[in-house]
Protein: Adenosylhomocysteinase
Amino acid sequence: MSYKVKDLSLADKGKVQIEWARKHMPVLDIIHEEFSKEKPLKGIRISAVLHVTKETAVLVETLMAGGAEVWLAASNPLSTQDDVAAALAVEGVHVFAWRGETQEEYFDAIKTIAEAQPHIVIDDGGDLHAYLHSSAEEIARKVFGGTEETTTGVHRLKAMEKQKILKYPVIAVNNALTKFMFDNRYGTGQSTIDGILRATNILIAGKIVVVAGYGWVGRGIALRARGMGARVIITEVDPIRALEAVMDGFEVMKMDKAAELGDIFITATGNIDVITKRHFEKMKDGVILANAGHFDVEVSVRDLESIAVSKREIRNCVTEYVLPSGKRLYLLGKGRLVNLVCAEGHSSEVMDMSFANQALSVRYIVENKDVLEKRVYDVPREIDSRVAELKLRSMGIEIDSLTEEQRRYLESWK
Amino acid sequence: MSYKVKDLSLADKGKVQIEWARKHMPVLDIIHEEFSKEKPLKGIRISAVLHVTKETAVLVETLMAGGAEVWLAASNPLSTQDDVAAALAVEGVHVFAWRGETQEEYFDAIKTIAEAQPHIVIDDGGDLHAYLHSSAEEIARKVFGGTEETTTGVHRLKAMEKQKILKYPVIAVNNALTKFMFDNRYGTGQSTIDGILRATNILIAGKIVVVAGYGWVGRGIALRARGMGARVIITEVDPIRALEAVMDGFEVMKMDKAAELGDIFITATGNIDVITKRHFEKMKDGVILANAGHFDVEVSVRDLESIAVSKREIRNCVTEYVLPSGKRLYLLGKGRLVNLVCAEGHSSEVMDMSFANQALSVRYIVENKDVLEKRVYDVPREIDSRVAELKLRSMGIEIDSLTEEQRRYLESWK
Amino acid sequence: MSYKVKDLSLADKGKVQIEWARKHMPVLDIIHEEFSKEKPLKGIRISAVLHVTKETAVLVETLMAGGAEVWLAASNPLSTQDDVAAALAVEGVHVFAWRGETQEEYFDAIKTIAEAQPHIVIDDGGDLHAYLHSSAEEIARKVFGGTEETTTGVHRLKAMEKQKILKYPVIAVNNALTKFMFDNRYGTGQSTIDGILRATNILIAGKIVVVAGYGWVGRGIALRARGMGARVIITEVDPIRALEAVMDGFEVMKMDKAAELGDIFITATGNIDVITKRHFEKMKDGVILANAGHFDVEVSVRDLESIAVSKREIRNCVTEYVLPSGKRLYLLGKGRLVNLVCAEGHSSEVMDMSFANQALSVRYIVENKDVLEKRVYDVPREIDSRVAELKLRSMGIEIDSLTEEQRRYLESWK
Amino acid sequence: MSYKVKDLSLADKGKVQIEWARKHMPVLDIIHEEFSKEKPLKGIRISAVLHVTKETAVLVETLMAGGAEVWLAASNPLSTQDDVAAALAVEGVHVFAWRGETQEEYFDAIKTIAEAQPHIVIDDGGDLHAYLHSSAEEIARKVFGGTEETTTGVHRLKAMEKQKILKYPVIAVNNALTKFMFDNRYGTGQSTIDGILRATNILIAGKIVVVAGYGWVGRGIALRARGMGARVIITEVDPIRALEAVMDGFEVMKMDKAAELGDIFITATGNIDVITKRHFEKMKDGVILANAGHFDVEVSVRDLESIAVSKREIRNCVTEYVLPSGKRLYLLGKGRLVNLVCAEGHSSEVMDMSFANQALSVRYIVENKDVLEKRVYDVPREIDSRVAELKLRSMGIEIDSLTEEQRRYLESWK
Structure:
């Protein structure tokens, strides 16, 4: 048995965490039961690069219940929960992950699990796919197929597909409706508010919240901020989305004007320089700045640093910048994703939907390996629907189904 | 000058109606001004089959401001507003429409405007397109292009495209985001509630409203019913939509169960037999039944008629059916579209968005007639965006635009 | 049998109306059944001045089921539904009411029913109470007690109480929680939106709605306007209410500023001159003005008339005023209560709550006539609670009740 | 200079905390400025028993700005923030408070500040008032007056008033509209959700949340839970409140039935035994139990302990109870107030409103000491209004005021 974790004695603590997650991942739980009976992954070796968290543990256990042997490395040197890693090691997972890996150790771990000669690879960001294609082509050639969890990873794989160098089929789990519609809108919507509350403990009711961007994430945040009693202002660059925001009852204006009004600013655009120097200068004293979009470039931390005359940590996750005018601005989580840095990121329920797509996609690859081409596929619609069905079932909700007559009627006019 | 209307002396009354509509169609108003200056339709003859309403009059005036000569017939024998038709005749439109046309008169009118040898044809339902393709091929061959307002019409045209018999390019105005997203969600959402209130004057707060279907229309209705204080139950056949409804805080269940709970039922599925005999039998005494979807087949009027022991009109738009058990059910607007039959259908603001797409699509065809193929096109994205922009402008709302750096950044990672 | 109505042949039509109302007045329905069994009003003569509508008919039938003999006159010369009056006459009610009474006929009718020597009087506005106290003191002296439906009537009676000239006890039905909290907030909230939609058919989503006053009525309207997708601005003179509006997520500002922003203005303050000349002059072209508060003095029709250069009816219930600047303002229902004038006022469900308080208060007076003093009483809390209980029961809703231990615990610390 | 704190070297850290609080207490900030100019508390000695937190520090500084000398002790042995206490000591406050006082030390501190011979006393819970009345009557006799922050304290003082043993006038700050309406509804509404999120990180959207009690607190929680996407069920014992909940669109039922449906239960009744053994036994596996009402008696922890076969801490603030059936229930914060135990209690904005009433009430007592009787007074309406006005002003919000004509009109009919 091979593995490398920080401290095996943390296993019991990790086990409790995994149990708590499992309670909130009912879809994987149903799949787990199904996999246990049908063993669809019997004899399959899977190498996975994922954040080594309690939710990932529930996915890994599901794959093992299906008969798979699992090798696991971390998708980020800082995100491993050492107690969970220990628990997985005890359960027989070949886990090579600990919090605080060096860059070298991080890549070594990926190399180790790649060399396990997996039939299936699961990746979160594309580093494992990249390693297989660049440094282990022999192994890659024998891979039945892979999945990818993130937008960035899918982007890298699409580039490889375009260059016709992809060595195995990949399913872009990121594109499942039951993933992105749920984690962006409901997941990030809630956890962004959560991050702001944990960081600041301010009262949201009566505040003016400016949300930059009215995509799925921005909508989720706007809805939740309104739900907490805020008056919400939207900024957008796309006129159709801007108009939707208006019709949804929100105020819409340029950031230049919103900058003068807002108490709390939240960016969710996926773009750079959404809030910059000239906006900071217009803001009221005491405003709060948070980013729920991409990286720490949406709120321009660079600009903030350049104009501030002083800076200090006020509370955990809150940095105060004093401008030359004496005005104070409060940046949360250093401008990084506020829901990850200041709260706990996605809840188990949200990861459940995403990982259910992973588990079913893995099975799909195994069962269709002979017909799949070396392409990047969307999650098949039937898997997407199945995940929604299982989620509804886990909630005890039954829905109608079309009768034969109804199906015919729909086909006749559509 | 040729036209045929019921009574020219109604023109003044019609003019007032048109003015009222114009006040609530600011996008067309801006386009009207633009067309007046630039005359992009100079020398263009347009034949249009549309409901002859005050909103259509505003579209026609806009086309004429652009330099066009307009021939107009009704798209439904019963929907013509005679005062509006009279006003248009006085303004120089070749209008052939009156309320209560016979079937023969209806088709004669279409024939008349087809024979005017139009450069552009505008249709609502496809009867004009059909006539040109079947009975006036010579004329059709010289048409620059056409537009189509409805799903049904687009469906017919796509069939013709598939059979390669389309004689000119057609733009499916129906598919513009600024049309279907707005009229379905915001337009029908409001007017369905309006129809129910006018028909019944019941208090919605505290009632259980069952909405069948969680597409754009169903969502709009659910949102508005909740906004009036109802407890809303959704029924759906698609698990992903059903799950969205759950995550939006609604109850979701089978119609068989909802039938026992609801006070008001509203169908919005586009399908047949959504509420049938076995549901009626489970319902509480006194429930209200309305359809906001397709035809009078969603709530099965046939089933209702077959099981009822008696039937009478209680109020305008309200028919009472007594079941053998003595229970009374109230059907609104005979099961036809409740917003059209019991209220006034779409408001001018909603038609404004749709007809702005019409006006700009007509201009687009004229300017691109040499490059357009004999196909069914979606409304070009730039027109769709333009309509949204003009709507925002008419509301005095300014939005941000991407800087060059932002545009590059987006392209770099997407 | 004595009565005076317009046309007895309308009775069948009236009967249908009354049935429809009864279906939506479940609380009175339960009381009706109870009264039928227990006959608490046996031998009691009741004279009532009320709007002669289908809902009043359901109250009258309930009183008769309890054993009462009922004499009925109209509380407004214009509000009588002649078909309902006819149906009541046929049922044996001494009804003296028809639409379009002269002032003299109106007071004659009141005189007639006063002279019937009632044990109990029910009044809506105070004219019957006033007549008894000023012109029929002998009769008044023998009255067991009375009720009063309106704020104005209660005001008049309190003045009489203060002067110690009240000749019988009166219960101020108007002050029941289950009356004013429900009809103001939920009733007027909905029917105001309804009135605006029927008058204008405009789309509310995306509009800026200015609500003057954040009392019960204003809150109801603000909630419903937001529920239809509007952006809502509140004006207030009371800082605590204004702050509540802010904390509820609304914008709050002076009317002077709101006047520049709003698309629709709705007054609900109970005061004069809320919107006046200087506000009209700041408004955007095309705004809509409606009053949901007191009389036609909230929106100053006087000012509007004085500054307008022209005026005309655009649609039923919509008057267009053109200002010297050419700007057009649209006043609904001549500035009178928009929910009454442009829609149908309160729904039967709302009147049900109010009239249930009437019926139970009448019974209460009969049963407590020996202990009640010549004062104005609030509706006893147990009646108020009972009405709520019956309403819940009619909806099939069961609630918890305190255990003995819980009751003791509450008493111990409160 | 006398004081007793844990560690004076924490003063700098405390100062940062106080600054952060001050930024979110704008009403006190305005009063601070006013007090600095007018010195209304010159020569006044104040003894205060309050939670020694950053918000209390802002109140104390305000009183000192007014010229007062302040003596401060903790109102709870565990709630003192030692860094804030240190900062206050450095600023010259006679503070006798540290986290982890013994019961004896707690009462010693109260004794110390009582013996400072205050002109004004501020209390939170009534221990200082009680001490003065029982053990320091001489001192009490010279007190100008006092204030009381809590319901419990007011209750104790009212009992003393009834027995005519009150030695000075007391203002019940707890009863100010700008206190209880805001902290209960907006404060506890938000912080309860916050506590649940911090404890569990579960997704609220799509969950069934059962709120027991529809008073101010319950309303606030219900609104926020709905705002986060939950389906909300209310239980109530008062039929009028229950009916309001129904009319607000919530489901209402008995706890016995809700117990079978809920995912998350939150009690807010102020009563005992709201959720007991028989409810636990009906619940689904995995439900979450939280209390936002009184003490740990609303959710019967006693019952839970008695039926559970095992119990363990799963996460900070989450205790898992396993029932004999194998079902697991998760109790948050041991059943104590979830917003205090699992989150940070009220935000500074909420305390701002409460403490502004304190500061203005203190001034009021000083200025009216000669006319006030030895009674328990409500906060004068003008102070309540003033707090709301200042809060609006701090937000840059201006509201209308009545004209002379409007004032007269109102008086004429009310």
Remarks:
- The interface with chain C takes residues 205-206, 226, 229-231, 243, 246-251 of chain A (CB under 8 Å).
- Chain A has two domains: 8-179+346-394, 186-341.
- Residues 177-200 of chain A form the longest helix (24 residues).
